[in-house]
């Protein structure tokens, strides 16, 4: 819930993002990308995309992140895909985290999709 000093809740989103990035770094997640999507999507303020080396690593990164979020007081996030560990989606409400195996990440190319969206937006401004 936004506070009077931070009506848009951005400070909470920033704290969650810092927790996410620290946890991913601790778990040795690879090629982590953080995208500021505030104003571009109603889904969240940030999207984080990262990779694990294998099914087991993706699952471990997700488990570690869920514990870190809970320990930091951000409650239980919604999780999809943890059973297969090809692509785990963790949604905190303010930050959406995609943890992929490298082959799956290459196939879906989320960074490219968002980069194209940002480039199209920049082109319409000129």
UniProtKB/TrEMBL annotation:
GO terms for molecular function: ribosomal large subunit binding. Keywords: Cytoplasm, Repressor, Translation regulation. InterPro entries: Iojap/RsfS/C7orf30 (IPR004394), NT_sf (IPR043519). It holds the Pfam family RsfS. It is found in: Cytoplasm. One of its GO terms (biological process) is cytosolic ribosome assembly. One of its GO terms (cellular component) is cytoplasm. Its main location: cytoplasm. Belongs to the Iojap/RsfS family. Functions as a ribosomal silencing factor. Interacts with ribosomal protein uL14 (rplN), blocking formation of intersubunit bridge B8. Prevents association of the 30S and 50S ribosomal subunits and the formation of functional ribosomes, thus repressing translation. This is Ribosomal silencing factor RsfS. It comes from Roseitalea porphyridii. The lineage of its organism: Bacteria, Pseudomonadati, Pseudomonadota, Alphaproteobacteria, Hyphomicrobiales. The gene is rsfS.
């Amino acid at each position: 819930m936004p506070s009077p000093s931070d009506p848009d809740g951005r400070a909470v989103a920033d704290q969650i993002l810092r927790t996410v990035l620290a946890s991913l770094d601790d778990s040795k997640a690879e090629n982590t990308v953080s995208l500021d999507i505030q104003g571009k999507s109603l889904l969240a303020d940030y999207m984080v995309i990262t990779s694990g080396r294998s099914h087991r690593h993706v699952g471990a990164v997700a488990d570690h992140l869920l514990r870190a979020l809970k320990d930091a007081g951000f409650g239980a996030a919604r999780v999809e895909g943890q059973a297969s560990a090809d692509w785990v989606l963790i949604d905190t409400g303010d930050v959406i985290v995609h943890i992929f195996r490298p082959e799956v990440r290459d196939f879906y190319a989320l960074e490219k999709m968002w980069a194209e969206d940002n480039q199209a937006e920049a082109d319409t401004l000129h």
